């Protein structure tokens, strides 16, 4: 239930429209917690009392200072546990600390079509006097979120009203109220109450999603990398979310969420924390806890479904059984049998550790000698631990690699967007495999024809195969694809958002991420119209020199403040921490993911590389050819 405070200075006709909407059920999942006025003579206070609604009068004139008034105003809102503040003709300047605390949770009705006749000096009759003086033919009303400017916040709804011959300011004011204000204010509240409004910068997105269980939520995100920072950033955009926790988080995530010192694999502690804080929704970003079974006690793809990523041997056998296109392969548990098989195999060839290996358990071997050494590395030397107890040997495929992220609810699958990763550490795709040195989205090589093929022969068949095996998958499936001369084939599955794929896909998603994820859990993904911005994004990873082998940590990072207030630039923290002096320092191999959006891939790439120069640390390293394939498309 959305609890709202309605603030009003006069007669309260918009308040009455809200009350009527709630009583007539055109506004759902909403209750008025309190009506607040700065005018003791406001008839709005009487309207509230007639309907059994608590009414309070607080006037700045009764306080020794404006600061004291602001403090008491905030205190009262907190006492009523208000989710949304509705300004319905409230002639008081909203304090900045209130705007900051209730970011995208304060809405206002303005009697014009913003940006016309708005700003300082335009209120009440003065708006309509201005419209008539200019001789406009159409005016109207606007519902918008409140920000630090005057009538400059993101617009939610607008409705036009015709100006008629002979109109006076009073007549026009009444018509605008009747035909616009009293209609769009209740409509906006209902949209927010039902989780259908998402804000991206100055843009409001209204989805067609259905009503879900909880309107205001406490969310826990599990993980500590750039992927989790991207997830937290998307969650923070949701007006349904009141509080975000991240376990364990990092220095960048700390700006948006309360980080708690619990490791991703400490299942019992995570469960206890979720119960203690009454967590409504949990998002698991990392692969280890999913495969380890965390969702068997919290949320997401269960352990028996996360095996889709946790065992390459399982996934290959699944694809073979259900005729999903992939490379030819054999599974081995005996290193001697693997070595014997290699004697007659065609080179180059690919060796894969069966289990999780931080994205580094794949070896591409060009010669028989390299392949034999790879078997010893994976199965005998146990470079990747128990992940190498079983090994997959598969044919080497050639073509473009493309990543596709999808949401799944066990039976329905929704495609997010394509992306393209850069795994090798050095320019020109040289050096060792890494977790990913950069990414771009969408991939120009993921054409409409490729999409249609994959939907028919790969995506839905994978979901159906998991269900048929008694392992229904709920959550995110990452499809790693190779676009071969014979058509698209599956390289790998991941049971979560890719990293850094999430950093280029999520900033482009229009939907409220909570709506989509909750639909997955509820088995109602078919009701979601998944939408993405018609733009592009590029991410360049800033790493510690020496990654992925050995590197130093603890270097202070400068320039992070340059990303503040920018809607088209993102600095996602992957390996950062606070030192004893409270400075943000490097704390991993991949340190930051510098992401920029643009009208197309070339513009986004240019902006991303420009932004890499904004930040600095002692052993900063990056690839300089992220997105080179863009020029080859």
Explain the overall architecture.
The protein has 633 residues and is of the alpha+beta class. Helix 5 crosses helix 6. The longest helix is centred in the first third of the chain and has 25 residues, at 169-193. The radius of gyration is 28 Å and the shape is elongated.
Describe how the helices and strands are arranged.
Layout: E1 2-7, H1 13-23, E2 30-37, H2 43-50, E3 55-57, H3 66-79, E4 84-87, H4 96-101, E5 106-110, H5 125-134, E6 138-145, E7 155-162, H6 169-193, E8 197-200, E9 203-206, E10 217-223, H7 226-236, E11 241-248, E12 258-259, H8 267-276, E13 281-284, H9 287-292, H10 303-310, H11 312-321, E14 329-332, H12 335-342, E15 349-353, E16 362-365, H13 368-380, E17 391-395, E18 400-409, E19 413-421, E20 424-426, E21 430-433, E22 438-441, H14 448-468, E23 474-484, E24 487-494, H15 501-505, H16 513-522, E25 536-544, E26 569-573, E27 576-578, E28 584-586, E29 590-598, H17 601-612, E30 620-621
Parallel strand pairs: 1-2, 1-4, 2-3, 4-5, 10-11, 10-13, 11-12
Antiparallel strand pairs: 5-6, 6-7, 8-9, 14-17, 15-16, 15-17, 18-19, 18-23, 19-22, 20-21, 22-25, 23-24, 25-29, 25-30, 26-29, 27-28
